[in-house]
């Protein structure tokens, strides 16, 4: 692949870049990357570093700007401000066809007028690889994505949905890119197939060791597949962390709520500790980083207390609803006392003799299991 | 209102057009084909059958006007497709007011009689007092010759008259090029030229072929451009046919030439039509 040197890219800097590789240079670095459409900013001053060999997922609701961000990374769109550095080299003005990256499109964007083999071998054809050689490579890639070699000559229009997914994957791999981008490739297929392909993509990541940057609006997909997750909202990255950490230690209410059902309470710092006025609860001896703010707690952190059991704080009330999640069930609890008190989400084992709606239970909560977040 | 048997509705709806085609197209064609097999300069349809007229067509040098007609048709098609491509690409991409204005500007001349337009072009091209030469002389004191009454002027007229017939199907064809495929091709390392060859042309092909066919067939059968702009510089086959039927009063030979033109047209049109998926073009 020809290495394009852009303006202001002196060979001297190239040498230093080489030396710096040992200091773990990120595969991709974004510095204040912005994409404005008129007055609105689809992507707003995003700073991000994606490590070499990482499975990095950007997750966010539709319209959050994640696709626009990915298109800029792939070279299909240009930032209106900021810099994109690919292994330390500024690539803002490098077009898509000159970047060592490949993308799996949401629509898959397969070439319908070509066979499976010609689709997969497309990138090689563009580089002038001879036909027999590139079809040989395509045959190998069919094996990688678990398609039979006989598919080489099959028209791509005659493939099923799942097969088309695999062809798109193989086509992106054919160019042997340093980084693979995925733009919600699994959003339009049925659940079972999606699970299967998730496993395959993850396995592919392990096997190739390449950097994968994946975009999805499906939280669960981000959780199962990624090394790190970035949460995006209204053009900005809200939090970047490994999946468990982002679930366990959200820094904002948006993240906490996006990552699943969560209790959100106002909290006030007092002389003797922390109070939750809405529930009439207090954690004596504890403190908050600010005078007041929000505390969030996952339902599974509110454990049911047996007869005479104790906890740092106790919410007693009546179960008004339940949702079975397999071996456990989530319960919605109406706390005793004032009717204006918020419903509390808890989680209990889903055994046959477990309390059902109408039953009274006591849930215990430890302050250490709560997280202080911003609005 | 009595309800119509759905099985009869289709044929009934087709009947007026079918009748028109039989009377206006099929019957004359059969008559001409039959007449082409009659002896020289006869007007009846009951003389003995002969292929003499076809022999005469080849022996008497009608190959030359036929060749010119083919050349003009091919050249017009090629130039129209080349000129229309960048414009069609812009118009297919932009669904804006700009596109609408340009489309109207291109379509507008179609509403003016072809002969009127061609005489206008002739006025424009005329030497000395013509609009082009006269203006250049008056404004810049600059004398130019004229291409009026040359083969070049004929070709210019053909391209001018038939360009819209290439442009509009091409816009339709280009609107079939999926944007994501173009982006995927770029992403996979294709240069602009490779994108054109690998993605744009194959996807736009139905529109290109239809546009090309229309221009080819129309230009092949064109007569006025060569008459008005070409003057005496060139004789095309349609002019020869016209002369056989009128001045020469040799209907059988005129018919034989007509049949030859039809055969050549069919030989070009049918193989191309076979490659076009009209359903796909119209449905999407």
UniProtKB/TrEMBL annotation, chain A:
Residues 28-259 form the ABC transporter domain. Keywords: ATP-binding, Nucleotide-binding, Transport. It comes from the Bacteria. One of its GO terms (cellular component) is ATP-binding cassette (ABC) transporter complex. The keyword S-adenosyl-L-methionine does not apply. It is a peripheral membrane protein. Transmembrane segments: none annotated. The keyword Nucleotide-binding applies. One of its GO terms (molecular function) is ATP hydrolysis activity. It is found in: Cell inner membrane. Signal peptide: none annotated. Residues 1-20 are annotated as: Disordered. Its main location: membrane. Belongs to the ABC transporter superfamily. This is Fe3+/spermidine/putrescine ABC transporter ATP-binding protein. It comes from Salinarimonas ramus.
Automatic annotation (TrEMBL), chain B:
The chain crosses the membrane at residues 12-35, 66-88, 95-112, 118-140, 152-172, 208-230, 251-273. Gene3D superfamilies: MetI-like (1.10.3720.10). Keywords: Cell membrane, Membrane, Transmembrane, Transmembrane helix, Transport. CDD domains: TM_PBP2 (cd06261). Residues 66-272 form the ABC transmembrane type-1 domain. It comes from Salinarimonas ramus. GO terms for biological process: transmembrane transport. The lineage of its organism: Bacteria, Pseudomonadati, Pseudomonadota, Alphaproteobacteria, Hyphomicrobiales. This is Spermidine/putrescine ABC transporter permease. GO terms for cellular component: plasma membrane.
């Amino acid at each position: 692949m020809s290495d394009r040197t852009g303006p202001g890219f002196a060979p001297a800097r190239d040498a230093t870049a080489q030396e710096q590789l040992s200091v773990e240079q990120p595969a991709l670095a974004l510095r204040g990357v912005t994409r404005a459409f008129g007055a609105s900013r689809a992507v707003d001053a995003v700073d991000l570093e994606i490590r070499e060999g990482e499975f990095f997922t950007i997750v966010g609701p539709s319209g959050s700007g994640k696709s626009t961000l990915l298109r800029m990374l792939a070279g299909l769109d240009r930032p209106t401000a900021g810099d994109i550095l690919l292994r330390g080299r500024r690539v803002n003005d490098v077009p898509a066809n000159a970047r060592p990256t490949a993308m799996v499109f949401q629509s898959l964007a397969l070439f319908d007028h070509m066979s499976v083999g010609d689709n997969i071998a497309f990138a090689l054809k563009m580089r002038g690889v001879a036909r027999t050689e590139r079809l040989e490579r395509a045959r190998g890639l069919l094996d990688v994505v678990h398609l039979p070699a006989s598919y080489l000559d099959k028209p791509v229009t005659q493939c099923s949905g799942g097969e088309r997914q695999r062809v798109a994957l193989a086509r992106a791999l054919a160019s042997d890119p340093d980084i693979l981008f995925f733009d919600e490739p699994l959003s339009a297929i049925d659940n079972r197939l999606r699970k299967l392909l998730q496993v395959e993509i993850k396995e592919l990541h392990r096997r190739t060791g390449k950097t994968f940057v994946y975009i999805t609006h499906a939280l669960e997909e981000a959780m199962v597949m990624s090394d790190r997750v970035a949460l995006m909202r209204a053009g900005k990255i809200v939090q970047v962390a490994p999946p468990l950490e982002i679930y366990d230690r959200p820094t904002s209410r948006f993240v906490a709520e996006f990552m699943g059902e969560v209790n959100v309470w106002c909290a006030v710092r007092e002389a003797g500790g922390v109070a939750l006025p809405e529930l009439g609860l207090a954690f004596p001896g504890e403190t908050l980083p600010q005078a007041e703010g929000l505390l969030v707690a996952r339902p599974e952190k509110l454990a049911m207390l047996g007869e005479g059991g104790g906890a740092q704080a106790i919410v007693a009330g009546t179960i008004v609803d339940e949702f079975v999640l397999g071996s456990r069930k989530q319960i919605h609890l109406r706390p005793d006392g004032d009717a204006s008190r918020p419903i509390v989400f808890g989680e209990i084992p889903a055994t046959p003799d477990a309390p059902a709606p109408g039953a009274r239970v006591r849930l215990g909560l430890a302050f250490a299991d709560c997280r202080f977040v911003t609005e | 209102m009595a309800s119509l048997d759905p099985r009869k509705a289709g044929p009934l709806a087709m009947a007026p057009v079918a009748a028109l085609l039989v009377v206006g197209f099929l019957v004359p064609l059969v008559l001409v084909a039959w007449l082409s097999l009659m002896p020289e300069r006869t007007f009846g349809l009951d003389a003995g059958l002969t292929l003499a007229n076809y022999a005469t067509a080849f022996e008497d040098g009608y190959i030359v006007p036929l060749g010119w007609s083919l050349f003009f048709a091919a050249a017009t098609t090629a130039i129209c497709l080349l000129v229309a491509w960048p414009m069609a690409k812009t118009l297919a991409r932009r669904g804006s007011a700009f596109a609408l204005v340009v489309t109207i500007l291109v379509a507008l001349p179609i509403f003016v009689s072809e002969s009127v337009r061609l005489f206008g072009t002739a006025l424009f091209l005329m030497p000395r007092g013509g609009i082009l030469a006269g203006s250049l002389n008056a404004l810049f004191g600059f004398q130019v010759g004229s291409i009026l009454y040359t083969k070049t002027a004929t070709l210019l007229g053909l391209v001018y008259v038939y360009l819209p017939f290439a442009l509009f199907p091409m816009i339709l064809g280009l609107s079939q090029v999926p944007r994501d495929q173009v982006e995927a091709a770029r992403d996979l390392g294709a240069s602009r030229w490779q994108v054109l060859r690998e993605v744009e042309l194959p996807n736009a092909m139905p529109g290109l072929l239809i546009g090309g066919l229309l221009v080819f067939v129309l230009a092949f059968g064109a007569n006025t451009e060569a008459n008005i702009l070409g003057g005496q510089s060139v004789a095309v086959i349609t002019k020869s046919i016209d002369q056989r039927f009128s001045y020469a009063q040799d209907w059988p030979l005129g018919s034989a030439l007509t049949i030859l033109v039809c055969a050549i047209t069919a030989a070009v049109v049918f193989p191309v039509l076979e490659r076009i998926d009209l359903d796909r073009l119209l449905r999407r």
